[in-house]
Amino acid sequence: xxxxxxxxxxxxxxxxxxxxxxxxxxxxxxxxxxxxxxxxxxxxxxxxxxxxxxxxxxxxxxxxxxxxxxxxxxxxxxxxxxxxxxxxxxxxxxxxxxxxxxxxxxxxxxxxxxxxxxxxxxxxxxxxxxxxxxxxxxxxxxxxxxxxxxxxxxxxxxxxxxxxxxxxxxxxxxxxxxxxxxxxxxxxxxxxxxxxxxxxxxxxxxxxxxxxxxxxxxxxxxxxxxxxxxxxxxxxxxxxxxxxxxxxxx
Length: 250
Known about the structure:
The protein is an all-alpha fold. The chain is 82% helix and 0% strand. The protein contains nine helices and no strands. It has helices at 2-10, 12-21, 29-60, 67-114, 126-153, 160-185, 191-200, 202-215, 221-249. Helix 8 runs antiparallel to helix 9 (221-249). The radius of gyration is 20 Å and the shape is elongated. The two termini are 25 Å apart.
């Protein structure tokens, strides 16, 4: 697992060079706009919701003693909840809506690595790619929320909240990498096959997603660069993993 995580991270080292070499930057114009607009809406909403969530949590404490401490903790937890949920929605909205624009990127990378597209290659229409992206990311969004919401309650427990933060980071990373990997899988595998493939290569997904999430902490620049670099890195690793699987089965 650790080896695959590091492998997913290391793919970023060649991503920037490959973006320029294959002239892939132009394919990211619309996805970058989608990314910036989505981030703007979520950040704006966060300012409104964090206070509301913090006040709601504070009301649970029914005693006067320790009220100030509880209010401080509740305000902090409110911010954390908004940031985490905001990251989740941002990630899946952008990954879903960008799907039709990422297929050409992944194709060019596959041709660069293998010399041609695979024999089982299937060209999908814009609508089919969008539908696939929405379907995959709705599935991942629901699963991630079901896992994340209970973990967020652990933030109320001193000491435990440190481990819950690490766990949340890796969960976010996994599903970010999942979405990036599927841009290559969509022309090779069906919906269920793709889910099984990512489960078998979850280390690569986590490694790719770790850098994806870290990029989001960079104001503006991170939002602009996150898709080009993460999609390119994921495509490199996924194409190689598919080729390796093909060799094993031949």
